[in-house]
Amino acid sequence: MPRKPLTAGVAAARHLASQGGVVATLVGETGVTPYTRMLIKGVAFGPTPPGFITLRLPEVEYLADTVTGIDPGDREVRLTSGARIGYDAVIIATGSRPRLLPDTVLGAGAAMERGQVSPLHSLADAQRIRERLAGLGRRARIVIYGGGIIAAETASTLQEAGHTVMLINRGTVPGLAAFGAPVAERLAAEHQSRVRTYFGRTVRQVEAGDHGVVVTLDDDSPLIGDILLVALGTIPAAPAPAPWTGGVDVDAHLRTDVPYHYAAGGVAMHHDALGAWRIDHWEDAAAQGAHAARVALHDLGLDAAPDPYLPRSPYLALVYGHAVAGVGSTVGAVSRLEEGDEFIVRHERSGTVIGVTGIDAVGTVSQWGPQLHQAAARHSGAQSRPPFLKNTP
């Protein structure tokens, strides 16, 4: 039951709806029309109308009534309206919320209230940013704080549209955790050649005024912009109160420590053969949601036991005209750049490839998905394709 019925919850409900004799209820946020979060950049910076990104729901009962808590003892979900829903099993797919500026940043709260500091996480964020940029009547000066996928795509989109972009990142190489060092280093060079970069810096103060926002860095350098976009990643958003108030810990089968309670997507904190990890992107959340549904059906005696969940889902980001593709995970991995005509990076743990990223090599990267997490001998330096494609022209 997701708070916002986005990808993990919808995928779980869709799988359950395909099973005979199963009654599934999808619970969303009060007053919110479900939408595809991966398309909100088009609303914020392009011509995409908000209604265009409405998410198609499966044929299950849908309640737009925010979850306020889960009672595992009575197996009831409590809703804002006061209603209670009984269940045999529950899948928590409440997603994530944006990581905002730390409380130590002076003036951040006042600037957010004025709309001059904003994350880009929700449709409401996108509409607010769109209105602010449209109201300028000119090209904007935009400061971005972050270095992952959202920050990179946003910087690229805005630079190509003719806006002045200032990109701040806490590390000297942005995107290391998301892409691995070889890809991140290549993207850092692209950023430095296209936009103004302030790597290895943090934000100390934000001053909002009628003519813009002044962002002061930790070395006292002032940046003057029209808006500060915060892209510092996400944190899990579990339903409160206890037993879950932050992320929801799950095992290799997406089970929590409470029987018949599962979690999937951005809220799920995984503990399995890969260690402790969390992935918050669309395709992986959908795969987790469907997997959690299969596990729940098995535990209820309605389906066969699925294998443990391991991330194999692809993602794609378009950055300065380059297709940055990835599949699987980079958590705790050693990154190795392949020799060959394509820019391919393998991410390995103990000789096992757990993820692959690449630049302008979408086909090769995506073909790795089925072969990830299988223990195998290291490939030769010239190997830039999955083992099963080695002899494919």
TrEMBL record:
- What keywords would UniProt list here? FAD, Flavoprotein, Oxidoreductase
Q: Name one GO cellular component term.
A: cytoplasm
Specify whether Disulfide bond is a keyword of the entry. no
Q: What class of enzyme is it?
A: oxidoreductase
Q: Which Pfam families match?
A: Pyr_redox_2
**The enzyme's E.C. designation:** 1.18.1.2
Q: What is this protein called?
A: Ferredoxin--NAD(P)(+) reductase fdr
**What is the scientific name of the source organism?**
Aurantimicrobium photophilum
